[in-house]
Specification:
Helices cover 36% and strands 0% of the residues. It is mostly helical. The C terminus is likely disordered.
Length: 242
Amino acid sequence: MKTQCKVSGMPPSRWHRQHVGAIVLPIAILAAAAAGCRGGKSEDPPFHLIPDMQWQDHRLPQSESPKHADGSLVFEDNRSNRLPDPHTVARGRSRTRTDDSFLKADDARYRGVDTAGQPVKRVPFEVTKALVDRGHERFNIYCSPCHDKTASGHGLVQQHSGGAFDNLPDLTQEKRLLEAPDGELFQTITNGKGRMPSYAAQVPEEDRWAIITWVRVLQQSQHATKGDAQGNAIEPQESETK
């Protein structure tokens, strides 16, 4: 004797087919309809089930103050731009940090310019041997592929570029670069120039100044005079073997 479904009285296999089909078929139709809409074009704005914060009220930069329903200004100075609230913390910074790099407010150190917006003439902090050594290392990593380790402009990129990187400047011989203020070199590393891209993402500000100190060392090595070596001469030592 066949087993009957206790609820409907029909065989389980027949009951299963009817009810599963009633569930699966609508799902399949909805899935097909959703897949068919992918990549479709419409002039109507998209429909957002959960708009989150996409439709919040906002003002364009430099626009006038919004107004109340009675026509009065929301901000008495009629400016939509507002000053940050007291104790506002810059994004990516910590409220617990108190050093000078907290908000990078030092234009000379972090942007290479003085109070008048002109490139600073020299590195705006003490140059130490450790800084020069760091610049030597960073220069060989980031700069030598194009400029080569002597800054002559004949790096591997230039040698294998098929002419695309010919005539790169010799950092040790070109008068314009010898006389350029350090801040100008800093801005070139930061923003890029000509065929050189920006290295701001790869080289932090401290390392940019370090690289500049090493460039000055290379320049000095090619233009040093006998007088520059006075006081740094190494006295010859007698041979230990006679």
